[in-house]
Amino acid sequence: MEKQFKIFVYKEGEPPLFHDGPCKSIYSMEGNFIYEMETDTRFRTNNPEKAHAFYLPLSVVKMVRYVYERDSHDFSPIRKTVRDYIDLVGDKYPYWNRSIGADHFILSCHDWGPEASFSHPHLGQNSIRALCNANTSERFKPRKDVSIPEINLLTGSLKGLVGGPSPSSRPILAFFAGGVHGPVRPVLLQHWENKDSDIRVHKYLPKGTSYSDTMRNSKFCICPSGYEVASPRIVEALYSGCVPVLINSGYVPPFSDVLNWPSFSVIVSVEDIPYLKTILTSISPRQYLRMYRRVLKVRRHFEVNSPAKRFDVFHMILHSIWVRRLNVRIREV
């Protein structure tokens, strides 16, 4: 991939809706990817004839902010913006129509990314969609689409986020703290909120308690889905050296093509939430140590660097796109 993969970034469109995105929020992957894609000369080509894939540099986050009328529940302005943009590049260049969008891709971390992708039928049906909200119940197709991690960069950098003590210095078995939304978290809170000193589950953190420090002091970090299946806690857990416990339905974990998630995480069904302590305590110390060491190995694949470094999250996303692009055969007409 590093030697061959070339991407053409369409130059049409003006910021902030295009060529721009947030870099300091829960949606930071949109802005960081756009920035790296437009500045990284190794993968980008200015000659579309040499491109293997075509990037549509739109930001759903920015569209929600500048195009969508708040609380209107009217998605039509976003749909029209996406549709008009694709019609523009389709009329100006031959590449969209040549493949009916199959060698084109978008990237979005907003919950409405899937909704926006179906603004144009060929975009949702044919194109590669790199989404944080990788929910199969919302028509995410693992063979065609790419699951990307949701990373909450409050400061825009990894400073202070990566690292944690050794397993022997982690006295807490499992930890979760977060708001009640979606169908999974109420079940988790019902069974475990403030009921067990080993399984520390809170709707609100006790006064004076540090979220990040508690995560670093925990062996397992519980990552239940909210309204959507993606959660920044998964990456926060990896950064902290805490083995993530995934509780969701229909979620495709990021980079599953190359990462064996069951080897460094615990995957629990919603029905098994009452047995969470039994499941975690049945993991032997030796098995837990193996999982912990694998967490330390794989977390570099989720790190955001500027400029990007080999094997970091930017390269992992590109590799996932590259693998799916290999499944597409373009016939010249």
Structure description:
This protein is of the alpha/beta class. It has two domains: 7-154 and 306-325, no CATH class; 167-302, Rossmann fold. Helices cover 32% and strands 13% of the residues. The protein contains twelve helices and ten strands. The chain is globular and about 60 Å long. The two termini are 27 Å apart. The model has no long low-confidence stretch (mean pLDDT 95).
Roughly how many Å apart are the termini?
Answer: 27 Å
Tally the beta strands.
10
Alpha-beta classification = alpha/beta
Helix content: 25-40%
Main β-sheet, spatial strand arrangement: 1-2-3-4-5
The portion of residues forming beta strands comes to 5-15%
What count of helical segments does DSSP give? 12
GO cellular component, one term: Golgi membrane
Subcellular location: Golgi apparatus membrane
Membrane topology: Single-pass type II membrane protein
Protein name: Exostosin GT47 domain-containing protein
